[in-house]
Amino acid sequence: MQEPVSVIIHTYNRARFLKKAIDSVLAQTYPHYELIVVDDGSEDNTAELVSSYGHKLKYVKQQNRGAAAARNTGIEAARYDLLVFLDSDDWFDPEKLAEQLAHMQRHPEYLISHTQEVWYRRGKLLNQKKKHQKPEGFIFTQSLKLCAVGMSTVMARRQLFDLVGGFDESLPCCEDYDLWLRASIRFPFLLVDKPLTCKAGGRPDQLSTLFRVGIDKYRIRAINKILATDGLSAEQRRLATRELAKKCRIYGNGCIKHGRLEEGATYLDLASQHDGKH
């Protein structure tokens, strides 16, 4: 079945990488897609680059509001039910859409799927650690520990976002961790066990680098959000509480180590409050 797909690339001052991302979509063997580029207020030559592709893609520009808002804009602009995401410094294998769509159609009970990915750092192939192995099924436990799903590997039905909400625009990073956590409470994730996305890392302008030191603060916020809801099972609540205490302790001790004593004490106190609840 030739089901159309909406591919969403969000970008901010990444013109030097964006061409490779766009070209990897246009090179897909599966032809039934639209490509949407959401420009989150770029001040480089992104607009000129995108205009050179003419009608091969749809260009949406907005004021700079962050990755979460840009992805939400892309979802709103998309015409089709199946949504695919690609960060502007990553790229797809030519078979990515065809392979992933075939898996989704063979397993219509899944609202979301992800794939394996190949990582590069400063141009060199990076061996992934065991903790980064991609999970399948009900992945709530793995999603608590770290961001278990690569953003550029995802294909999801619009219904998923209707049911769990979009990306949290108040989060400057970890908006994907937050969304996968909310989704994994209720829904299983299908894994396409092939490396169909390539990811380039190790640059100082990436969110994972910019927020590397304080990243657990945003994961703590995401866990606090789900604990404030009624949707968790007793076991999910126990696991979330345990992980929250652990992350608060790590982050609090890190704050104290770097001289932020008041902030550190706040998070260590929060850890103590949750220690007896799991």
Supply database-style keywords.
single chain; 278 residues; alpha/beta; Spore Coat Polysaccharide Biosynthesis Protein SpsA, Chain A; 2 domains; 9-stranded mixed β-sheet; globular
Explain what you see.
43% of the residues lie in helices and 21% in strands. The longest helix has 24 residues, at 234-257. The termini are far apart. A hairpin with a 2-residue loop joins strand 6 and strand 7. The protein has 278 residues and is of the alpha/beta class. It has helices at 15-26, 46-51, 67-77, 96-106, 140-145, 158-164, 175-184, 207-210, 215-227, 234-257, 261-275, and strands at residues 5-11, 33-40, 58-62, 82-87, 90-92, 112-121, 124-126, 155-157, 190-201.
Largest sheet: 9 strands, mixed
- Basic shape: globular
Averaged pLDDT, please?
A: 92
The name of the CATH topology of the largest domain is Spore Coat Polysaccharide Biosynthesis Protein SpsA, Chain A
Calculate Rg over CA atoms: 19 Å
